[in-house]
Design a protein that fits this description.
With 188 residues, the protein is α+β, with helices and mostly antiparallel strands. The chain has a single domain, classed as Jelly Rolls, CATH 2.60.120.380. 26% of the residues lie in helices and 37% in strands. It is built from four helices and nine strands. A hairpin with a 2-residue loop joins strand 6 and strand 7. Helix 1 packs antiparallel against helix 4. The chain is elongated and about 70 Å long.
């Protein structure tokens, strides 16, 4: 026979697993595709604003950078922005595919200030840049206005697919965590 205190631990353990599974992304949605939505902005001063598909889905951008060796002509830059609410956190920012013959510059800005800069190549596919940002800037809170700039001035286009995901704790999740804490304290 299972004792009452063990039943409580089992119930809260299962409840915790359900909450964790509920917070994981279950699907993805394309929020911008250059073949149907048009070219992303080429100017850092006026980035293309992208929404989140939802708080539980990866938001995907399908685009291409490059196509001209002249920085003033063509698609040498892709500049986009998205907003992570103050109570949320950027959880993932990654390239799902990158098909280029050369590396592209990849810059991430938070509130207009350069947060992280690197190059991206086909070997960086599935690399979560949020982890790199946390390593380089451990005290940075990853919420606010993010601007992403990708640059390549090779005359051959470099198609890529990039995804981003933010998490926002829901009030019901916080309430359940508080109730679980109270129940454990009461049992002692």
């Amino acid at each position: 026979m299972i004792q009452a205190k063990h039943k409580t631990v089992i119930v809260f353990g299962v409840l915790g697993l359900v909450i964790l599974a509920w917070q994981c992304p279950v699907s993805a949605a394309v929020v911008w595709d250059e073949t149907t939505n048009g070219d992303l902005s080429n100017f850092i001063a006026s980035p293309t604003h992208l929404p989140f598909s939802s708080e539980l889905e990866n938001s995907i951008v399908n685009a291409s950078v490059g196509g001209s060796s002249d920085p003033n002509i063509g698609d040498g830059y892709d500049v986009l922005e998205f907003v992570v609410a103050i109570e949320g956190r950027l959880k993932e920012l990654r390239f799902d595919s990158y098909n280029g013959i050369s590396d592209s510059n990849f810059d991430i800005y938070l509130f207009g200030s350069l947060l992280y800069s690197t190059t991206v190549s086909s070997t960086d596919v599935d690399r979560n840049y949020v982890e790199d940002i946390k390593d380089a800037n451990p005290s940075t809170i990853l919420s606010g206005f993010f601007t992403i700039q990708i640059a390549n001035f090779i005359s051959i286009p470099h198609p890529y697919s990039m995804s981003y995901l933010a998490t926002v704790p829901e009030p019901s999740t916080l309430l359940l965590a508080c109730l679980a804490g109270c129940a454990l304290l009461r049992r002692r």
